[in-house]
Design goal:
single chain; alpha/beta; Metallo-beta-lactamase, Chain A; six-stranded mixed beta sheet
Length: 243
């Protein structure tokens, strides 16, 4: 199994991923930026893999997605959660779906809160064990923080859903599971993000001050730290949802 974490040059606070099974020549690309399509294509060639699936963890509001373009170029399948509602067609993902790429599997976890369509991918290398190895957590859980719930309105309701996704799903995972988030320090998608691009469930449970188990306290705390909205947010969302 291989995993490549991409710090996007045009937006260094954003993180994208390519992972898969080198032995079987299969891969998944996650949260591809428009300016990184060629980089993903080149990485696939270098690793001698096909990009079978291209996944956006949600409709992004801070960057233009290159997911559909990469899927077209690679012959892969472009995927979003079933609750997404862009103007174009896509292959819908459902909570609990299993994406299999050789010896590697990725289980879809629907984790609404940052957006209604937010998902995470729980990844296992079955050549070693069926136990999960790492979680690509999108903009739901960051290292040192949690996603912002206000980008589509209904902030209080969304903050409550974010709490449920974190405490009823993500934080119930085995403590050894590694966390690979969709952004790091400098991103406007959450307050207080660490510059460290990887963590574990155990470390975040102990030291992530955003993770208040009391739901009402969590909601009030996260709403008190809302950052200014991303620059050109409405234009970016429009472009990411237009046919």
């Amino acid at each position: 199994m291989f995993l490549v974490q991409r710090q996007v040059p045009g937006d260094p606070s954003s993180l994208a991923y390519l992972f898969g099974c080198g032995g079987k020549g299969k891969a998944i690309a996650v949260d591809v930026h428009q300016e990184d399509v060629d980089w993903f294509t080149e990485q696939a060639k270098l690793k001698d893999v096909d990009i079978n699936y291209v996944v956006d963890t949600h409709i992004h509001a801070d960057h233009i997605s290159g997911g559909r373009e990469l899927a077209d170029k690679s012959g892969g399948t472009y995927m979003l959660h079933e609750s997404s509602s862009p103007e174009f067609s896509f292959t819908p993902l459902h909570d609990g779906d299993l994406l299999t790429i050789g010896n590697v599997t990725a289980t879809v976890m629907h984790t609404p809160g940052h957006t209604m369509d937010s998902i995470c991918l729980l990844v296992s290398d079955n050549r070693r064990t069926s136990e999960p190895w790492f979680l690509i957590s999108g903009h739901t859980l960051f290292v040192g923080s949690a996603g912002r719930p206000d980008l589509r309105g209904q902030e209080e309701k969304m903050a409550g859903m974010l709490h449920d996704s974190l405490f009823n799903k993500i934080l119930t995972l085995p403590e050894h599971v590694e966390i690979y988030p969709g952004a790091q320090a400098g991103s406007v998608c959450g307050a207080g993000l660490s510059a460290k691009p990887v963590s574990t469930i155990a470390f975040e449970k102990r030291f992530n001050t955003s993770l208040n188990a009391d739901k009402e306290a969590f909601i009030q705390s996260i709403l008190a730290e809302i950052l200014p909205e991303p620059a050109d947010m409405q234009r970016i969302i429009q472009q990411n949802t237009s046919a």
